[in-house]
Automatic annotation (TrEMBL):
Chain segments annotated as coiled-coil in the UniProt record: none
NCBIfam families per the UniProt record, alphabetical: PRK05853.1
Organism listed in the record: Mycolicibacterium fluoranthenivorans
One Gene Ontology molecular-function label: single-stranded DNA binding
Pfam families: SSB (PF00436)
Protein name: Single-strand DNA-binding protein
UniProt feature, compositional bias: Low complexity: 122-133
TM region positions: none
Length: 152
């Protein structure tokens, strides 16, 4: 299959819906990417909008589930394709979809706090370096700052 690399900056317009397909996690949601342009008078007017379905599999699906919600600003990277299908009346339809390889918050439009829940250092590595820096020290500067929690 020919895969076209694609990235889009937009807003989540449907809550992500997780489910299992066979033995894999799958999550689907929709994104709107809106443009605007400057008029000759210097004011801004809305431009075109792109609406697409984002399909996440495996670890990407796990990361999206419970972390993203309707209204969140996101950056989606993946491969774009057209999904063709017949609707209930038998009419041929198509939709633009992305199989996401990476999904994250758009940091130009929100603030986040990375969840310090990560792999613990191996005991040998912690004893060699003396005292390992714990999550309390690592995110001291972001505590109580009103940032959104995002799992790494």
């Amino acid at each position: 299959m020919f895969e076209t690399p694609f990235s889009v900056v937009g807003t989540v317009i449907t809550d992500p819906v997780p489910r299992r397909v066979g033995d894999q996690d799958f999550t689907r949601f929709r994104v709107a990417s809106n443009s605007r342009r400057r008029t000759a008078e210097g004011s801004w007017e809305p431009g075109n909008s792109l609406y697409l379905t984002v399909n996440c599999w495996g670890r990407v699906a796990e990361g999206v589930t419970g972390a993203l919600f309707k209204g969140d600003p996101v950056v989606v990277v993946g491969h774009i394709y057209t999904n063709e299908y017949d609707d209930k009346e038998g009419n041929r339809r198509s939709s633009i979809e992305v199989r996401a390889t990476s999904v994250g918050p758009d940091l130009s439009r929100c603030r986040i706090k990375i969840d310090p829940t990560r792999r613990a250092p191996e005991p040998a590595a912690a004893s060699e370096s003396g005292a390992a820096e714990g999550p309390e020290e690592a995110d001291e500067h972001t505590r109580n700052s009103g940032e959104l929690p995002i799992s790494a």
